[in-house]
User: What shape does this take?
Amino acid sequence: MRDWIALAHDDRLFREHTSDCLRKAGYEVTTFSDPVVTINTIEACQLFHTLITQVTFPPGKPNGISLALLLLPKNPGLRVIFVGSPECEPQTKGIGLFIAQPLSISRLLEAVQSLSSATEA
Assistant: This one.
């Protein structure tokens, strides 16, 4: 069974590059630019195993931490990976795994695989 990944990020180039790399590694990826649409979709279909999101979104949108905190109670098996500037890491403790930008695709793939393996064990 393939892992389904929700990738929520407001930067189109980031979404395209990252999702292409994840797909080449064998993952099913759905991208979102809006965290509210991400919440609605994940809650509606209950299909996703992993959420990759940025820590901050533009003003007027929920941040990635809020996104995760809204989704985790209804999706307790959801794995969360945050991508952001190093100073954001303390805010993500206990919620999900943090990867500092600039993003290393190899580091992201290792994290997705590691979280997937840990959940299966």
Summary: The domain at 4-120 is CATH 3.40.50.2300 (Rossmann fold). The longest strand covers residues 79-84. The beta strands are 4-8, 28-32, 50-54, 79-84, 97-100. Residues 99 and 107 are 8 Å apart (CA to CA).
